[in-house]
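Comment thread on ticket #2218

A.B. wrote:
> Attaching the input chain for the structure job we discussed in standup.
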Amino acid sequence: MKRLLDCSASDFLSMTGQELKQSIRGSEGRVIMAETMTVPQPLYPDITNAEIASSFGADIVLLNLFDVFEPGVKGLEVENNENIIIELKKLVGRPIGINLEPVDADAGAHEALDEVPRGRLASVESLKRARDLGFDFVCLTGNPKTGVTNEMTVEAIRNAREIFGEDGLVISGKMHGAGVAGESGGDIISERVIEQFASAGADVILMPAPGTVPGMTVDKAQKYVDSAHAYGALALLTIGTSQEGADEHTIRQIAINSKMAGADMYHLGDTGFYGIAVPENIMTYSIAVRGRRHTYVRMGRSVNR
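C.D. wrote:
> Ran it. Output below, let me know if you need it in another format.
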Protein backbone atom coordinates (compact mmCIF):
# COMPACT_ATOMS: atom_id res chain seq x y z
CA MET A 1 0.00 0.00 0.00
CA LYS A 2 1.35 3.43 -0.98
CA ARG A 3 1.69 6.06 1.69
CA LEU A 4 -0.80 8.82 1.06
CA LEU A 5 2.02 11.31 0.46
CA ASP A 6 2.81 9.47 -2.78
CA CYS A 7 -0.75 8.86 -3.97
CA SER A 8 -2.32 10.34 -7.07
CA ALA A 9 -5.98 10.67 -8.03
CA SER A 10 -5.99 7.27 -9.72
CA ASP A 11 -4.72 5.64 -6.52
CA PHE A 12 -7.52 7.17 -4.46
CA LEU A 13 -10.19 5.98 -6.90
CA SER A 14 -9.31 2.34 -6.27
CA MET A 15 -8.83 2.52 -2.48
CA THR A 16 -11.17 1.03 0.08
CA GLY A 17 -11.64 2.89 3.34
CA GLN A 18 -9.31 0.51 5.16
CA GLU A 19 -6.65 0.91 2.48
CA LEU A 20 -6.98 4.67 2.91
CA LYS A 21 -6.45 4.20 6.65
CA GLN A 22 -3.25 2.26 6.06
CA SER A 23 -2.09 4.85 3.54
CA ILE A 24 -2.58 7.58 6.15
CA ARG A 25 -0.77 5.51 8.79
CA GLY A 26 2.17 5.05 6.43
CA SER A 27 2.54 8.81 6.02
CA GLU A 28 3.72 9.19 9.63
CA GLY A 29 1.82 12.29 10.68
CA ARG A 30 1.88 14.20 7.39
CA VAL A 31 -1.73 14.16 6.14
CA ILE A 32 -3.87 17.30 5.83
CA MET A 33 -7.68 17.30 5.87
CA ALA A 34 -9.61 20.45 4.94
CA GLU A 35 -13.29 20.89 5.77
CA THR A 36 -15.49 22.96 3.46
CA MET A 37 -19.15 23.92 3.52
CA THR A 38 -21.33 23.05 0.55
CA VAL A 39 -24.33 25.33 1.20
CA PRO A 40 -22.99 28.92 1.18
CA GLN A 41 -21.57 30.50 -1.94
CA PRO A 42 -17.92 29.47 -2.35
CA LEU A 43 -15.09 31.89 -1.71
CA TYR A 44 -15.02 32.57 -5.45
CA PRO A 45 -18.17 31.71 -7.45
CA ASP A 46 -16.42 30.03 -10.38
CA ILE A 47 -14.96 27.18 -8.33
CA THR A 48 -16.00 25.04 -5.36
CA ASN A 49 -14.42 25.47 -1.96
CA ALA A 50 -13.32 21.84 -2.18
CA GLU A 51 -11.24 22.65 -5.26
CA ILE A 52 -9.67 25.68 -3.59
CA ALA A 53 -8.77 23.69 -0.48
CA SER A 54 -7.25 20.93 -2.59
CA SER A 55 -5.20 23.38 -4.64
CA PHE A 56 -3.64 24.77 -1.43
CA GLY A 57 -2.40 21.39 -0.25
CA ALA A 58 -5.27 19.40 1.31
CA ASP A 59 -4.92 15.63 0.90
CA ILE A 60 -8.48 14.86 2.00
CA VAL A 61 -11.66 16.95 1.79
CA LEU A 62 -14.47 16.80 4.35
CA LEU A 63 -17.84 18.26 3.33
CA ASN A 64 -19.95 20.03 5.94
CA LEU A 65 -23.67 20.95 5.83
CA PHE A 66 -24.19 18.52 2.95
CA ASP A 67 -27.78 17.21 2.94
CA VAL A 68 -27.83 13.64 1.65
CA PHE A 69 -31.50 13.89 0.66
CA GLU A 70 -30.99 17.16 -1.22
CA PRO A 71 -27.47 16.70 -2.61
CA GLY A 72 -25.75 19.79 -3.91
CA VAL A 73 -22.45 21.65 -3.81
CA LYS A 74 -22.40 25.38 -4.50
CA GLY A 75 -20.04 26.15 -7.33
CA LEU A 76 -20.74 22.86 -9.15
CA GLU A 77 -23.61 22.16 -11.50
CA VAL A 78 -24.23 18.65 -12.82
CA GLU A 79 -27.03 17.11 -14.83
CA ASN A 80 -27.95 14.69 -12.06
CA ASN A 81 -27.24 15.63 -8.45
CA GLU A 82 -27.17 11.96 -7.54
CA ASN A 83 -23.74 11.94 -9.20
CA ILE A 84 -22.43 15.16 -7.66
CA ILE A 85 -19.92 13.51 -5.30
CA ILE A 86 -18.54 11.36 -8.11
CA GLU A 87 -18.12 14.49 -10.24
CA LEU A 88 -16.52 16.46 -7.38
CA LYS A 89 -14.01 13.66 -6.81
CA LYS A 90 -13.00 13.91 -10.48
CA LEU A 91 -12.36 17.63 -10.05
CA VAL A 92 -10.32 17.47 -6.84
CA GLY A 93 -8.61 14.08 -7.19
CA ARG A 94 -8.89 13.52 -3.44
CA PRO A 95 -10.87 11.28 -1.08
CA ILE A 96 -14.06 13.06 -0.02
CA GLY A 97 -16.01 12.46 3.19
CA ILE A 98 -19.14 13.81 4.83
CA ASN A 99 -20.04 15.11 8.27
CA LEU A 100 -23.14 13.51 9.76
CA GLU A 101 -24.34 14.53 13.22
CA PRO A 102 -25.34 12.16 16.06
CA VAL A 103 -27.79 14.60 17.66
CA ASP A 104 -29.07 13.68 21.12
CA ALA A 105 -32.60 14.96 21.72
CA ASP A 106 -32.04 14.60 25.48
CA ALA A 107 -28.73 16.44 25.55
CA GLY A 108 -28.22 18.78 28.47
CA ALA A 109 -27.52 22.01 26.62
CA HIS A 110 -25.87 25.16 27.92
CA GLU A 111 -27.14 27.26 25.00
CA ALA A 112 -30.09 27.32 22.61
CA LEU A 113 -29.66 24.50 20.07
CA ASP A 114 -30.26 24.63 16.33
CA GLU A 115 -32.48 22.14 14.55
CA VAL A 116 -30.42 19.89 12.29
CA PRO A 117 -32.06 18.91 8.96
CA ARG A 118 -32.91 15.25 8.47
CA GLY A 119 -30.31 14.87 5.71
CA ARG A 120 -27.48 15.86 8.04
CA LEU A 121 -28.37 13.58 10.94
CA ALA A 122 -26.32 10.43 11.56
CA SER A 123 -29.38 8.23 11.10
CA VAL A 124 -29.42 4.82 9.47
CA GLU A 125 -31.19 6.31 6.45
CA SER A 126 -28.66 9.12 6.06
CA LEU A 127 -25.71 6.78 6.44
CA LYS A 128 -27.06 4.55 3.68
CA ARG A 129 -27.57 7.56 1.41
CA ALA A 130 -24.02 8.77 2.07
CA ARG A 131 -22.68 5.35 1.11
CA ASP A 132 -24.77 5.26 -2.07
CA LEU A 133 -23.74 8.79 -3.10
CA GLY A 134 -20.12 7.64 -3.21
CA PHE A 135 -18.49 9.22 -0.18
CA ASP A 136 -15.14 7.67 0.69
CA PHE A 137 -15.69 7.95 4.44
CA VAL A 138 -18.07 9.26 7.06
CA CYS A 139 -17.20 11.61 9.91
CA LEU A 140 -19.52 11.50 12.91
CA THR A 141 -19.20 14.84 14.66
CA GLY A 142 -21.18 17.93 15.63
CA ASN A 143 -21.43 21.50 14.44
CA PRO A 144 -21.87 24.25 17.03
CA LYS A 145 -25.22 24.32 18.88
CA THR A 146 -26.40 20.92 17.61
CA GLY A 147 -26.55 18.83 20.80
CA VAL A 148 -24.28 16.04 19.57
CA THR A 149 -23.14 13.83 22.46
CA ASN A 150 -20.51 11.15 22.83
CA GLU A 151 -23.19 8.67 23.86
CA MET A 152 -25.14 9.10 20.63
CA THR A 153 -21.90 9.02 18.67
CA VAL A 154 -21.18 5.49 19.92
CA GLU A 155 -24.52 4.32 18.54
CA ALA A 156 -23.86 6.10 15.24
CA ILE A 157 -20.43 4.45 14.93
CA ARG A 158 -22.02 1.00 15.24
CA ASN A 159 -24.55 1.86 12.55
CA ALA A 160 -21.91 3.34 10.27
CA ARG A 161 -19.70 0.28 10.63
CA GLU A 162 -22.57 -2.01 9.68
CA ILE A 163 -23.64 0.13 6.71
CA PHE A 164 -20.19 0.96 5.30
CA GLY A 165 -18.92 -2.54 6.05
CA GLU A 166 -15.57 -3.76 7.28
CA ASP A 167 -13.78 -2.01 4.41
CA GLY A 168 -15.35 1.37 5.21
CA LEU A 169 -13.61 4.23 7.02
CA VAL A 170 -15.37 5.72 10.05
CA ILE A 171 -14.15 8.86 11.85
CA SER A 172 -15.75 10.02 15.10
CA GLY A 173 -15.34 12.63 17.80
CA LYS A 174 -15.97 16.27 18.68
CA MET A 175 -13.98 19.38 17.81
CA HIS A 176 -15.79 21.48 20.41
CA GLY A 177 -18.72 21.07 22.80
CA ALA A 178 -21.50 21.31 20.18
CA GLY A 179 -23.58 23.08 22.83
CA VAL A 180 -23.60 20.17 25.30
CA ALA A 181 -23.06 20.84 29.00
CA GLY A 182 -20.32 18.63 30.47
CA GLU A 183 -18.74 17.87 27.07
CA SER A 184 -16.77 21.02 26.38
CA GLY A 185 -13.22 22.25 26.84
CA GLY A 186 -11.01 19.61 28.41
CA ASP A 187 -14.04 17.37 28.99
CA ILE A 188 -14.84 16.87 25.30
CA ILE A 189 -12.99 13.57 25.25
CA SER A 190 -11.55 11.05 27.71
CA GLU A 191 -9.74 7.75 27.58
CA ARG A 192 -13.05 6.04 28.38
CA VAL A 193 -14.75 7.73 25.41
CA ILE A 194 -11.87 6.75 23.14
CA GLU A 195 -12.24 3.12 24.24
CA GLN A 196 -16.00 3.27 23.56
CA PHE A 197 -15.50 4.78 20.11
CA ALA A 198 -12.82 2.27 19.12
CA SER A 199 -14.79 -0.69 20.47
CA ALA A 200 -17.85 0.42 18.49
CA GLY A 201 -15.80 0.39 15.28
CA ALA A 202 -14.23 3.83 14.79
CA ASP A 203 -11.08 3.82 12.64
CA VAL A 204 -10.07 7.39 13.43
CA ILE A 205 -10.67 9.28 16.68
CA LEU A 206 -11.19 12.99 16.20
CA MET A 207 -10.21 15.40 18.99
CA PRO A 208 -9.33 19.09 19.38
CA ALA A 209 -5.78 20.13 18.62
CA PRO A 210 -3.74 21.62 21.48
CA GLY A 211 -4.63 25.27 21.96
CA THR A 212 -8.00 25.15 20.19
CA VAL A 213 -10.28 24.54 23.17
CA PRO A 214 -9.69 25.52 26.81
CA GLY A 215 -7.64 22.94 28.68
CA MET A 216 -6.41 20.98 25.66
CA THR A 217 -2.65 21.05 26.24
CA VAL A 218 0.01 19.20 24.29
CA ASP A 219 0.41 16.72 27.16
CA LYS A 220 -3.30 16.03 27.34
CA ALA A 221 -3.60 15.65 23.57
CA GLN A 222 -0.65 13.27 23.53
CA LYS A 223 -2.27 11.13 26.23
CA TYR A 224 -5.45 10.84 24.16
CA VAL A 225 -3.55 10.20 20.92
CA ASP A 226 -1.60 7.41 22.64
CA SER A 227 -4.88 5.96 23.88
CA ALA A 228 -6.36 5.96 20.37
CA HIS A 229 -3.26 4.25 19.01
CA ALA A 230 -3.43 1.62 21.75
CA TYR A 231 -6.86 0.60 20.42
CA GLY A 232 -5.64 0.46 16.82
CA ALA A 233 -7.26 3.74 15.78
CA LEU A 234 -5.65 6.73 14.12
CA ALA A 235 -5.78 10.19 15.69
CA LEU A 236 -7.09 13.27 13.87
CA LEU A 237 -6.33 16.56 15.65
CA THR A 238 -8.69 19.34 14.62
CA ILE A 239 -9.18 23.08 14.42
CA GLY A 240 -12.93 23.49 14.81
CA THR A 241 -12.88 26.85 16.58
CA SER A 242 -12.52 29.31 13.68
CA GLN A 243 -8.78 29.49 14.35
CA GLU A 244 -8.39 28.29 10.78
CA GLY A 245 -8.79 32.03 10.19
CA ALA A 246 -6.02 33.02 12.62
CA ASP A 247 -2.62 34.45 11.71
CA GLU A 248 0.04 32.20 10.23
CA HIS A 249 2.13 32.16 13.43
CA THR A 250 -0.83 30.67 15.34
CA ILE A 251 -1.39 28.08 12.61
CA ARG A 252 2.25 26.99 12.77
CA GLN A 253 2.10 26.73 16.55
CA ILE A 254 -1.01 24.54 16.45
CA ALA A 255 0.55 22.44 13.70
CA ILE A 256 3.83 21.74 15.51
CA ASN A 257 2.08 21.12 18.84
CA SER A 258 -0.27 18.65 17.13
CA LYS A 259 2.64 16.83 15.55
CA MET A 260 4.44 16.67 18.92
CA ALA A 261 1.24 15.17 20.36
CA GLY A 262 1.51 12.34 17.83
CA ALA A 263 -1.31 13.10 15.38
CA ASP A 264 -1.66 10.92 12.29
CA MET A 265 -3.56 13.61 10.43
CA TYR A 266 -4.58 17.23 10.84
CA HIS A 267 -7.87 19.01 10.19
CA LEU A 268 -8.59 22.64 9.41
CA GLY A 269 -12.19 23.79 9.78
CA ASP A 270 -14.42 25.75 7.44
CA THR A 271 -14.85 29.20 8.96
CA GLY A 272 -11.60 30.99 8.31
CA PHE A 273 -13.81 32.58 5.74
CA TYR A 274 -17.41 31.40 5.82
CA GLY A 275 -17.21 27.97 4.20
CA ILE A 276 -13.48 27.36 4.04
CA ALA A 277 -10.25 27.90 5.98
CA VAL A 278 -8.10 30.82 4.89
CA PRO A 279 -6.48 29.03 1.93
CA GLU A 280 -2.98 30.25 2.77
CA ASN A 281 -3.39 28.69 6.22
CA ILE A 282 -3.93 25.26 4.66
CA MET A 283 -0.60 25.68 2.89
CA THR A 284 1.06 27.10 6.03
CA TYR A 285 -0.12 24.13 8.12
CA SER A 286 1.05 21.70 5.46
CA ILE A 287 4.52 23.26 5.18
CA ALA A 288 4.86 23.22 8.98
CA VAL A 289 4.25 19.47 9.33
CA ARG A 290 5.80 18.16 6.09
CA GLY A 291 7.81 20.90 4.38
CA ARG A 292 7.62 22.50 0.95
CA ARG A 293 8.46 19.29 -0.92
CA HIS A 294 5.32 17.36 -0.04
CA THR A 295 3.18 20.50 0.05
CA TYR A 296 4.09 21.69 -3.43
CA VAL A 297 3.87 18.19 -4.88
CA ARG A 298 0.33 17.82 -3.52
CA MET A 299 -0.63 21.28 -4.75
CA GLY A 300 0.81 20.70 -8.20
CA ARG A 301 0.00 17.03 -8.88
CA SER A 302 -2.48 16.75 -11.75
CA VAL A 303 -5.83 15.03 -11.17
CA ASN A 304 -5.15 13.20 -14.45
CA ARG A 305 -2.29 11.20 -12.96
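A.B. wrote:
> Thanks. Noting for the ticket: The chain has a mean pLDDT of 94.
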